[in-house]
Specification:
Shape: globular
Number of strands: 17
Number of helices: 42
Strand content: 5-15%
Distance between the termini: 47 Å
CATH topology of one domain: Rossmann fold
CATH architecture of one domain: 3-Layer(aba) Sandwich
Low-confidence stretches: 255-264, 942-991
Mean pLDDT: 84
């Protein structure tokens, strides 16, 4: 962050400091909003959570407007520093906080450092870090934000902070006792012990301080008072540590010195044999090795995490061998069996083994695990030993095995992220890339073997999904069966042939590896983990597309909050990965495994209900995106099912189009599944709802395929409403691609359906589209008649939002009839309305047409100004077809005014777009336009067209959007002066 530095304080009343002075944060609601965001710094906090923080359960009727107002005030306060700190990220907000800028985070980091120093016995550092942490407290956290601080979330966080503060004070007292400062801490220790009558450690420390200052009687009284309190309140006796200190009082002696540990006769070296075919992972191996070698960073533990079969152990063993010379005191290795059929190994037993491996010979091995851990830390302290803990189940299994800070290092592998471990370096492991997969398979079965069947090889690599385990199984099968062609194995690994069963060899199987991860949470005693296992099964019902918390909530039949919780738990378990913020996906093989688990364990009724919830959600989400992207005044009637689950939110048309583009594979999957389930009502709504997306991606052919598929489903089920809307939308697709006869045919069929139904608004839209079609084919008179009939029907239906649409068609016809002055006046009315509606696609179209009319009138500057603004809009919304149209129009304008070089540049850019995206008509039009230019001595290379500056008051914030009611015109430019269909005709018909 490059602006003014802001520091935030929550350990007391809320404060914001800019480095020189406090910045006032006025208004209780704004302060609560800021505090709620600061309690989850750099994380997305949903609007619903923030509203609950600000108003509790009693939301006012004007909550949306009020919330937006408070958020704007906070954004203004934070933006005054010069940085954009408060980001709008669906489904809420994210507050960016740099390291060291929030007192809670600094406090927790200091406490962690004090704890590590306490483990290592570095008492000076314990004292320094503890004092630095405690100095950050200015009073009770969030002291000025009642009743917010009394809500459950803040209360839990405040309680945890209080416990950490108490722990820091205990560690500080421990350090003082170790450093001989018994007398100096007596007063503070006595007060704190009185405030916490059941806190055994404080009373133990107070006993020792009194005893070591000669006040034995008071020390005994402290013990007996504590014992009475524990027995009366909890029915329990003091713990071992207090009893040991009490015995010290009885003996009148100082604490015994730590046991003497005999040095090991020779350094242990326990790393298993490395995988001989270890291939790839150069970047990850180098990064892990650098972390283990970095003595300056105190060699923090390194955790390699990833899904089962991704190669964590192989990488850990490989790296351990790379760095073995850095650790002359030995390498300890243990398979913790966190994910295995026999259950995880206990830290208690492993500590006994490690102590023996290090040559420790205590008189008696302690029975208590914590005591063994302390002995292990003493034995390994100061030694340059590498400890490799493989296949850890969770942080609790690992924590007792961690050595103190020092010259040694720790390398851990786990299918869990182990984020609870303090101060670790994370190395998440992903599946192998394409080149690494090919290299590994070549090493396993020979490069010559796989070189002759490239198609089968591609299928095999796709089936393995980049998992080294799967590739090793495939390589082993091929090397042991030299007569097998690759095509035979590729066929057996096809997804519909049960590839998980095929990916096994002897005792090694991909499914078995997945079983260990899944069963660990399915059979857990922890209820949230069992719920995550159910979620994992249901996620398998949907092909491995990306989920959001909202789509997952629909599939799971859960709240968005609960869906987010189980998804994050699955991410931590490496059963789900996150390709982006708030987005989740299953690895292809894990998706197939999850589907098998669902088939085996979920009742058929639940599987069907979950699938229908997902289909309904996608149908509603696509409809919502279309409504924003198209600004249409008439949408298909809603489904009968209640809404139920939150849909994606779109700030503007560009967001809606981008969402649809990103979700298109899942939408096509939903369309197919809806047909299989006999849900024609869902299928046709999905296809019809792609209209908004198609206004900028009509040229890809995706929409045509979806419309044909949905029409087959609607006809098969006798769904007349679906057929009406699909004919209407199919006419859109044909009109956009200049398939004029087919467009007119589907418009006629749609008009028959909607006339029979008495739907005047639909009739108005279809007549308007017929007008556009006739104008596109050069019949301007008929186009004008139909546009006026459409305009009249829109008036009768009282649809003012469609007036701009109807007027634009009238203007198109006037343009074709040569009534340029009238056309200019009409287009200007349309453009004024569209600026107010913030309708990007339709505005770009109208500006393009206005520029063409201005060209006819000889007004060069006005023509290029309008067309340049249209081009800027098209480029901003990443619309290749619309951009090519604008460039063709601008080429004709430059050509009209004999600006040959500028015309050539426009045609060449149009041609480049046509070639890149396979738009045949633009290729043809561009080549014809270039051929019609006079020869130049030295043609310049293509360059960007200079966009004329547009006054701020006329700029459009929106990105691509089609016209209202799904009936818009996208601009085109003729390759010759006379208008005709194709790139360059007066308008591309875009119908609803």
């Amino acid at each position: 962050m490059g602006g003014v530095m802001l520091r935030f304080g929550l350990l007391g009343p809320l404060v914001v400091h800019d480095g020189t002075a406090l910045r006032p944060v006025t208004g209780l609601k704004v302060r609560v909003l800021l505090a709620a965001l600061l309690l989850q710094p750099n994380r997305v906090v949903s609007k619903d959570s923030l509203k609950e923080a600000m108003w509790g359960d009693e939301l006012p009727s004007s909550v949306e407007a009020s919330f937006a107002n408070h958020a704007t005030r906070l954004r203004r306060l934070l933006a005054a520093t010069g940085d954009e700190r408060l980001l709008t990220v669906a489904p809420g907000y994210q507050l960016l906080v740099a390291e060291g800028d929030l007192d809670i985070e600094v406090f927790e980091a200091r406490v962690r450092a004090a704890g590590l120093a306490h483990q290592a016995g570095d008492w000076e550092k314990v004292l320094g870090e503890s004092r630095a942490a405690l100095a950050l407290w200015r009073g009770a956290p969030l002291a000025d934000l009642t009743p917010y601080r009394d809500q459950r979330g803040p209360t839990l966080r405040i309680h945890r902070l209080g416990q950490l503060r108490l722990q820091a004070r205990e560690w500080a007292f421990d350090a003082e006792l170790r450093l001989g400062n018994h007398r100096e801490i007596l007063t503070d220790l006595a007060v704190l012990a009185a405030e916490n009558p059941l806190r055994e450690e404080l009373h133990r420390q107070l006993m020792l301080a009194l005893h070591r200052t000669g006040r034995q009687a008071e020390a005994f009284e402290v013990f007996h008072t504590l014992r009475r309190s524990l027995v009366d309140e909890l029915g329990t006796e003091p713990g071992p540590a207090v009893r040991a200190s009490y015995q010290e009082l009885l003996d009148g002696e100082q604490p015994p010195a730590p046991p003497v540990l005999a040095p090991a006769p020779r350094p242990p070296y326990q790393i298993p044999s490395s995988v001989p075919e270890f291939t790839g992972r150069e970047r990850e191996a180098a990064a892990v090795a650098a972390l283990l070698r970095d003595a300056a960073a105190s060699r923090r533990p390194v955790v390699i995490s990833g899904m089962g079969g991704v190669g964590k152990t192989a990488l850990a063993v490989h790296v351990a061998r790379l760095v073995q010379d850095e650790f002359p005191d030995g390498t300890l290795y243990a398979d913790l069996r966190g994910f295995s059929g026999g259950g995880p190994r206990s830290a208690h037993d492993l500590l006994a083994r490690f102590l023996a491996d290090l040559g420790a010979r205590p008189a008696a091995l302690p029975d208590d695990t914590d005591d063994r851990a302390a002995l292990f830390r003493s034995a390994i302290a100061g030694r340059r030993v590498l400890l490799v803990l493989d296949n850890a189940r969770d942080a609790a299994q690992v924590t007792p095995l961690l050595p103190p800070q020092g010259p040694g290092a720790v390398l851990i592998t786990s299918r869990q992220l182990l984020v609870e471990l303090p101060g670790v370096e994370m190395m998440p492991l992903r599946p192998l890339g394409a080149e690494e997969q090919l290299a590994l398979l070549s090493r396993l079965c020979g490069a010559d073997r796989i070189a002759h069947e490239p198609a089968a090889l591609a299928d095999i690599l796709a089936a393995c999904g980049g998992l080294p385990l799967a590739l090793r199984i495939v390589g082993g099968r091929l090397s042991s069966r030299p007569s097998w062609p690759l095509a035979l194995l590729a066929e057996r690994l096809a997804p519909d042939r049960g590839r998980l069963q095929a990916l096994s060899m002897g005792a090694v199987a991909v499914r078995h590896t997945f079983d260990m991860s899944y069963r660990a949470i399915r059979d857990s005693g922890n209820a949230p983990e069992r719920e995550a296992a159910r979620a994992f099964r249901l996620l398998g019902l949907w092909k491995p597309h990306v989920f959001t918390t909202r789509s997952a909530a629909a599939l799971l039949g859960a709240s968005e909050y609960d869906a987010s919780a189980v998804l994050e738990l699955l991410v931590d378990a490496n059963l789900v990965h996150g390709p982006g913020p708030g987005r989740y996906a299953l690895h292809d093989l894990l998706g197939e495994y999850a589907a098998q688990c669902a088939a085996e364990e979920e009742p058929a009724g639940e599987r069907e209900a979950a699938t229908v919830r997902m289909l309904v959600w996608y149908a509603r989400a696509v409809g919502a995106a279309c409504a924003v992207a198209s600004h249409e005044t008439q949408s298909p009637p809603p489904l009968d099912e209640p809404a139920g689950f939150a849909l994606p939110e779109f700030a503007e048309d560009a967001d809606a189009i981008e969402w649809t583009k990103r979700e298109l594979p899942a939408i096509r999957e939903a369309l197919t599944r809806a047909g299989e389930a006999g849900r024609s009502d869902i299928a046709w709504r999905l296809a019809a709802g792609l209209f908004g997306y198609a206004t900028t991606h009509w040229w890809t052919g995706e929409w045509d395929a979806c419309l044909r598929q949905a029409m087959d489903i609607a006809v098969a089920h006798g769904d007349t409403l679906g057929q009406a809307w699909l004919h209407r939308r199919t006419a859109v697709a044909h009109g956009m691609a200049y398939r004029n006869e087919q467009c007119l045919e589907h418009l006629g069929r749609a008009l028959e359906f909607f006339t029979a139904a008495g739907d005047l608004l639909a009739q108005a839209s279809i007549l308007g589209n017929m007008s556009s079609l006739h104008s596109q084919t050069g019949d301007a008179r008929q186009g004008l008649v139909l546009a006026e009939r459409s305009h009249e029907l829109y008036r009768r239906t009282r649809s003012p939002r469609s007036e701009a649409l109807a007027l634009s068609r009238i203007a198109d016809a006037q343009n074709l009839l040569g009534e340029y002055t009238l056309a200019v006046l009409t287009y200007e009315k349309v453009i004024a309305a569209l600026r107010e509606q913030r309708h990007g696609v339709f505005l770009a179209t109208s500006l393009t047409h206005l520029g063409d009319v201005r060209r006819h009138l000889g007004d060069r500057e006005a023509a290029l100004e309008a067309q340049s603004e249209a081009l800027a809009i098209r480029r901003r919304m990443d619309d290749p077809g619309g951009t090519a149209d604008c460039l063709a129009y601008m080429a004709r304008t430059h050509q009209h005014f004999e600006e040959w070089e500028a015309a050539r540049s426009c045609w060449e850019q149009c041609l480049e777009l046509g070639l890149h995206h396979g738009m045949a008509q633009h290729i043809e039009a561009s080549r014809a336009g270039l051929a019609g230019l006079p020869a130049l001595p030295a043609p310049s290379p293509p360059k960007e067209v200079t966009v004329s500056p547009v006054p701020p008051s006329q700029r459009v914030a929106a990105s691509p959007v089609p016209p209202p009611s799904g009936a818009a015109t996208a601009s085109s430019v003729p390759p010759s002066p006379s208008p005709h269909p194709g790139p360059g005709g007066p308008s591309r018909t875009c119908v609803s």
